[in-house]
Design goal:
27% helix, 219 residues, 4-stranded mixed beta sheet, two-stranded parallel sheet, alpha/beta, 8 strands
Amino acid sequence: GIEHHVLDFRDTFHQYVVSNFVDEYAHGRTPNPCVMCNSHIKWGKLLEAADAYGCDYVATGHYAQIAEHRGHLYLKNAVDTIKDQTYFLYSLTQEQLAHTLFPLGGLTKQAARQIAEEQGFINAQKRDSQDICFIPDGDYAAFLRRYTGKEYPEGNYLDLSGKVVGRHKGAVCYTRGQRKGLGLALGQPVYVCQKDMQANTVTVGPNSALFSDTLIAKD
């Protein structure tokens, strides 16, 4: 008995989420498309549509909670700290939070599954996914090739002194802090410490080389 409306936000999704994702990778950064989607789609276009339909709230399946303190709304960690998604919602404004419900915030994932099972939902035991929705196979490099029509040539792995220690599959394929999937056997674990997109090099080093006492932040 609940009305069901299909809203077409493909153009907005393409503009703010997918294009941003591709552009960030091209500049050697690692984007978070979920943050962009929440800002521009779920708490942008969807909230606008809800208001147009006369709805007071948008309810989502995020594991997060909203708390009020002295007239100010705050994002609060979910009960299930392993599934907590407040990080993806940092950009929400007071106005947006005032029109948001998080019905799963007070539940563990296990409890949510149990309720779904009792209600006969077909996705009650659906496996957890951390893949990006528009790249379900997790192959970012293949997606970038399809989207841009560009090839990303192999290049050199360098150690911290600048010595060549191997070959990589294209600097765009890696992210800072990455350890798995490097294809290097150097006798000790190494991590991606830096990327030079112009030179197409990836610098690797020990875990200790990942740390810094300063950073430049944006948004």
